[in-house]
Design the sequence.
């Protein structure tokens, strides 16, 4: 993977990992992950706690060094070119890293000096809209307000890439909704590329274009959301139907359901379904959460490169 | 710079209350006169004292707290990523935080001083660049050290164990190097090493703190690793050269001497030599050197340590006094004794605590007893068991001269003040150590302003005493026991008699200078003049020693002689007394040791003693003259400033 392939304007990717490995002494946190985030794409990196999501995010931000492999931002090594790359990146970390004793006004003024392309009016408008008090120190803001402030500061300079590490962690449903709304609004307005690590499968389902699922440090799945939905299906067959004929679709699970048999397949095929005969009572696409559970419990995968 | 400014602004925003505290401290300092312990001071001084104390506390405290929390606190609170996720380089983040610590600390200190400085007369006296340099260095050192320690503790890494080991090693090595340097008694070397070491340490601390932030970024363990690597490598880079230089300093040998500043020969083959060596600054190593074999022994770390040194008459022992510490009021002095064959320095139990240094060491002829002046007393010790065998009170210790006239008998010569301001007499006494009896045997009346010198020849029981009458000096040959005058040797203009030499056969040679130049006069043992030898028209003609019987080594000095003159000043000659023949020493060499006050116990120098055989070459090297052949042999290659 060369740097020029992913450079801005080439129409390729803006962020990428290649054979990336992170090791904490004896523990392997990330194991040879390779993935790309294309321009304009919303990439959701999913995984259970400790799967290695945050490690990958920190490496992409140039805050942590990979044990092996490469992390690239805009075609350059993320560790070496961090200050330059950060001018084009907005970041919302998992835990608030805002200086606890400074207020929103001070932070906005400070960021205005740091970023040459700071949109102060838009930032202040967004703060008003999200109800973040301007003169209250960060340590007296609610968790939701802190996240909104972080998101607002991350978007203030019109970043080309937004990197979010579980931004809705610990937020209540309303606050979560507000975060996703802000994000969706930003995407609608600017088409910003987003690399997102999250547990919030429900929230991310509406915005992600592509998902990657980390299982114990390895990328078990990396696929477009639409393709995933088309591929993974739940079929409800009448009782006594020859569900074994679905084997070529890759049966992930099979269990008795009310009035029939429920079969989950990982390579759904209409033609093959017709050949089974009798036809299913119902064909459903899996939710992202169901997909995540299926992948992380070892029942599905194969989408990873 | 924009990044540095941004980080600086953020840090100052977070801790701006420091300036408020500094201002409050400044106002509180105005209450100095009401502080109970300062009620004895003037109001002005009390305010300045309190303000200074508060300012120093402000600076040290702020540097400490800011240093310990600015990085470590943010690493622990996971806030440092706020800066690292901005377009700010690691160097800018480090510089901004460091500058903030400096600005906050100095700002707080200046604010604490400000009210008193402007209100009190002379309150701005502290505004000097030296104060600024020390304050900046101190704040940077405290702040940076606190930053390193803070991150090390936050990381909770196993590296802490290595840090502790490395710290212990560094402290131990530093103490060892410092002790060795300190013992060299070379204040310039010590000062340069201390300043260089401190400055280098400061640089290492700064580089380590930079590595901590720039390379550690948001990881405490990575920051700790980076700082430890730089810190201990840097400390090693300071300590290894310093230790190497210290070894080099202390490894000086007589061959290292570039300039000989002290040359003190014993009776036979041993000489105490000290001087300047190349690349060792003001370190003055002192050696006991065997001129026959070249074998040497380091006497003390430095020539500065030799307060007084004396050989025994048989040349077997050397004793000297060395500082053993000092307090504000008293000196601590240690007496060291060295048996020359085999060479062994014996530490003695004698450590004196006195307002005045012990002095006038003298050995008994066989080196069994040592006497000296201590305080107001003359004391004698038996060296076998270091037992004090006698002590007598002196009239005037500063004028006292001690000399063993027998194995256990000491001749004591001292000035005894009279009733009037200018009255008094030179008294001579015999002090028998076996019985403790102190008997006055003679006296020489004189007024204290005229008494000038006394030169003793114990072997023939004679002494020369000089008086100054109006405009003239008169030399008399006296009985060394009774003080009775045996002969008047002559009168010369004041301050014009310098060199006197007693010869082995009882004759004596002295230098007398008149308007026409210097002359050597030769007297028989009874004091009758035998001859006057012009020895050329020189300003000075100094008899330096009797090389063989009847042949005197002399040194002439004449600044009036033109360049290229074969007798150019200074020059050395061998003078045959019987014939008056003057033979120049080879190739412009001069006697290296000249003078009248021989150091071993007042005994007359023997013929062919070592002092008479040491020559100084025109290039400053020291050579040994063979009296039999007249040949010379190099001893010390120096560019000699003897």
Sequence:
């Amino acid at each position: 993977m060369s740097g020029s392939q992913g450079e801005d304007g080439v129409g390729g990717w803006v962020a990428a990992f290649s054979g990336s490995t992170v090791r904490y002494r004896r523990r392997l946190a990330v194991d040879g992950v390779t993935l790309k985030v294309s321009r304009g794409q919303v990439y959701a990196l999913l995984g259970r706690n400790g799967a290695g999501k945050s490690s990958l995010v920190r490496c992409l931000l140039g805050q942590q060094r990979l044990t092996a492999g490469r992390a690239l931002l805009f075609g350059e090594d993320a560790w070496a070119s961090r200050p330059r790359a950060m001018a084009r990146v907005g970041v919302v970390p998992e835990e608030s890293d805002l200086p606890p004793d400074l207020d929103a006004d001070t932070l906005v003024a400070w960021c205005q000096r740091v970023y040459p392309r700071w949109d102060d009016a838009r930032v202040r408008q967004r703060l008003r809209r999200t109800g973040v008090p301007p003169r209250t120190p960060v340590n007296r803001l609610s968790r939701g307000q802190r996240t909104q402030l972080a998101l607002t500061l991350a978007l203030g300079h019109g970043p080309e890439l937004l990197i979010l590490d579980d931004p809705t962690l610990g937020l209540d449903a309303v606050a979560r909704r507000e975060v996703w709304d802000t994000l969706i609004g930003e995407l609608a307005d600017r088409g910003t590329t987003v690399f997102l690590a999250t547990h919030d499968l429900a929230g991310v389902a509406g915005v992600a274009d592509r998902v990657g699922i980390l299982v114990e440090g390895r990328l078990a799945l990396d696929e477009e959301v639409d393709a995933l939905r088309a591929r993974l299906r739940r079929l409800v067959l009448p009782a006594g139907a020859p569900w074994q004929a679905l084997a070529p679709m890759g049966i992930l699970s099979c269990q008795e359901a009310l009035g029939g048999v429920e079969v989950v397949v990982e390579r759904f095929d209409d033609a093959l379904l017709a050949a089974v005969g009798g036809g299913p009572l119902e064909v459903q696409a899996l939710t992202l959460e169901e997909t995540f559970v299926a992948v992380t419990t070892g029942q599905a995968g194969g989408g990873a490169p | 710079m924009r990044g540095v400014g941004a980080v600086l602004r953020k840090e100052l925003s977070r801790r701006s209350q420091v300036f408020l505290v500094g201002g409050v401290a400044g106002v509180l300092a105005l209450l100095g006169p009401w502080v109970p312990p300062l009620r004895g001071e003037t109001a002005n001084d009390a305010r300045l004292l309190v303000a200074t104390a508060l300012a120093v506390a402000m600076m040290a405290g702020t540097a400490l707290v800011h240093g310990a929390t600015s990085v470590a606190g943010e690493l622990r609170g996971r806030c440092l990523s706020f800066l690292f996720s901005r377009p700010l380089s690691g160097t800018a983040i480090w510089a901004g935080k460091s500058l903030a610590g400096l600005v906050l600390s100095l700002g707080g200190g200046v604010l604490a001083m400000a009210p008193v400085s402007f209100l009190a007369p002379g309150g701005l006296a502290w505004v000097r660049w030296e104060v600024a340099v020390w304050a900046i260095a101190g704040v940077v050192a405290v702040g940076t050290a606190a930053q390193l320690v803070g991150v090390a503790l936050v990381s909770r890494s196993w590296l802490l164990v290595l840090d502790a080991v490395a710290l212990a090693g560094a402290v131990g090595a530093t103490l060892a190097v410092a002790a060795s340097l300190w013992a060299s008694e070379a204040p310039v070397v010590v000062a340069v090493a201390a300043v260089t070491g401190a400055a280098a340490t400061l640089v290492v601390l700064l580089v380590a703190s930079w590595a901590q932030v720039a390379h550690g970024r948001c990881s405490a363990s990575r920051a700790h690793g980076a700082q430890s690597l730089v810190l201990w490598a840097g400390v090693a880079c300071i300590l290894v050269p310093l230790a190497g230089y210290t070894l080099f300093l202390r490894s000086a040998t007589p061959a290292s001497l570039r300039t000989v500043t002290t040359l003190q020969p014993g009776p036979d083959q041993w000489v105490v030599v000290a001087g300047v060596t190349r690349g060792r600054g003001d370190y003055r190593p002192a050696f006991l050197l065997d001129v026959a074999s070249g074998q040497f022994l380091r006497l003390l770390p430095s020539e500065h340590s030799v307060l007084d040194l004396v050989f025994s008459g048989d040349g077997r022992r050397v004793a000297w006094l060395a500082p053993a510490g000092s307090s504000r009021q008293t000196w601590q002095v240690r007496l060291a004794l060295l048996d020359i064959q085999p060479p062994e320095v014996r530490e003695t139990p004698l450590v004196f605590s006195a307002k005045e240094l012990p002095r006038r060491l003298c050995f008994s002829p066989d080196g069994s007893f040592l006497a000296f002046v201590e305080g107001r007393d003359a004391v004698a010790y038996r060296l076998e068991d270091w037992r004090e065998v006698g002590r007598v009170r002196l009239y005037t210790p500063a004028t006292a001269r001690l000399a063993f006239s027998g194995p256990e008998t000491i001749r004591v010569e001292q000035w005894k003040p009279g009733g009037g301001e200018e009255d008094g007499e030179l008294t001579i006494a015999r002090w028998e150590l076996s019985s403790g009896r102190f008997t006055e045997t003679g006296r020489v009346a004189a007024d204290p302003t005229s008494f000038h010198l006394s030169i003793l020849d114990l072997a023939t029981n004679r002494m020369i005493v000089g008086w100054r009458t109006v405009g003239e000096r008169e030399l008399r040959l006296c009985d060394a026991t009774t003080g009775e005058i045996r002969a008047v040797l002559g009168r010369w203009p004041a301050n014009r008699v310098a060199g006197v030499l007693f010869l082995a056969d009882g004759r004596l040679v002295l230098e007398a200078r008149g308007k026409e130049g210097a002359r050597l006069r030769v007297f028989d043992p009874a004091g009758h003049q035998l001859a006057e030898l012009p020895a050329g028209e020189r300003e000075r003609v100094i008899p330096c020693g009797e090389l063989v019987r009847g042949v005197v080594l002399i040194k002439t000095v004449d600044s009036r002689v033109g360049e290229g003159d074969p007798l150019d000043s200074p020059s050395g000659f061998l003078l045959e007394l019987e014939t008056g023949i003057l033979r120049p020493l080879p190739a412009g060499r001069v006697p290296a040791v000249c003078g009248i006050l021989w150091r071993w116990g007042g005994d007359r120098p023997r013929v062919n003693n070592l002092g008479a055989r040491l020559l100084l070459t025109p290039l400053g090297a020291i050579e040994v003259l063979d009296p039999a052949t007249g040949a010379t042999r190099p001893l010390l290659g120096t560019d000699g400033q003897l």
In short: Chain B touches chain A at residues 2-3, 5-6, 9-10, 13-14, 77-82, 84-89, 92, 217-219, 222 (CB under 8 Å). Residues 596-604 of chain B have pLDDT under 50 and may be disordered.
